[in-house]
Amino acid sequence: MANSMMKHFPKLLCRSMRGTGRMVAPPPSLTPNSSKSYKRVLSALGTPLRSLSTSGKLSSAFFESQHPLVPGTTFMDDTNVYQMLNKYETILLDCDGVLWGTDHFTHLSGVAKTIEKLRSLNKQLLFVTNNSLHAREAYVEKFHSQAGFHADIEDIFCTAYAAAVYMKDIAKVQGKCYMIGSKGMQDELNKLDIETIGFGPDSDAVSEDIDSLLNQALEDNVDAVAVGYDVNFNYNKLFKATSYLTDPKCHFIATNDLETREMIGKRHCQPLTGALVKAVAAASVRKPEVVGKPHYHLMETILDTHPTVDPKKTLMIGDSLRTDVAFAHRAGISSALVLSGETNEDRLDKLLALPKNSIGQTPDYVLPSVCFLAEFI
């Protein structure tokens, strides 16, 4: 029965087929005279037609009575969207899997309309992502060109920026930073006057020979090692990061450590930032300071930039239980889980199986996608 939970949402379902660029058509309105697909949904639920209301709409109350979720979690529908939104002044929006597909480029129809309508209700919208690939300026452009809306740079919080803020304001890094990461991450560090080394392909020849390794020059005055997403990661970079971290005074900072891989095909698996972080952590026998979700530092960065944000009136909308919902719990804010990204209809089974006292992974609300909100505003 849990596999049918995605059918809880009879209205707009803005979900993309990853990597194809094609949109999955929204399901038809569920009425007693609907198509065969509707009858299959009811059959899967084991629910006769007469269980519906006279209008034929499947409400959140109906589904919650059929399949009780974790206590305290509400399925959103046209009867409770306004009630939810009226509680909050600030909405934090994840990006991958929420504003576009988890492949970073698949278009999700209706996002721009949703942003516009939320702003018409005077909601403060902040954009919070664990992606360390781009600097904030790149997100301003991406929001405009790919998602169709504008965002100010001070409203964007990526982990490349969060890492720079941590090094400057908390770690007080005075020397160089050996960086395993992207051009966007380098840009964010340099903007805060943090000197970086290590960006791009490593110039030394890869070798297992001890003499060759000893001949690789290590720079002086390296106060930090920062690890983000880096397509040029190799043995030499691991060797140098580990070597710098033998100094106990050298800070070890990671953009995020949970996302370790992404299946991008039947047989192809893409390593993500977490895999690189774990490799450096294992080799150096050091535990990193992680600045991304679900860790609280990202909330500190948000509050430093926007001190008027009230956590009690703030909602995090994301597609991941492990990062977005857990982050909301640690930050003392509410959470809404969307099923348009990492958590989809198949993974919702895991949500249903969570213990009642699971800390950090119980969302306050569940909705099919952020686009769903625009239908009822």
From TrEMBL:
Pfam families: Hydrolase_6, Hydrolase_like. InterPro entries: HAD-like_sf, HAD-SF_hydro_IIA, HAD_sf, PGP_euk. GO terms for molecular function: phosphatase activity. The keyword Hydrolase applies. Keywords: Hydrolase. One of its GO terms (cellular component) is cytoplasm. SUPFAM superfamilies: HAD-like (SSF56784). PANTHER family: 4-NITROPHENYLPHOSPHATASE-RELATED (PTHR19288), FI11325P-RELATED (PTHR19288:SF93). This is Uncharacterized protein. The lineage of its organism: Eukaryota, Metazoa, Spiralia, Lophotrochozoa, Annelida.
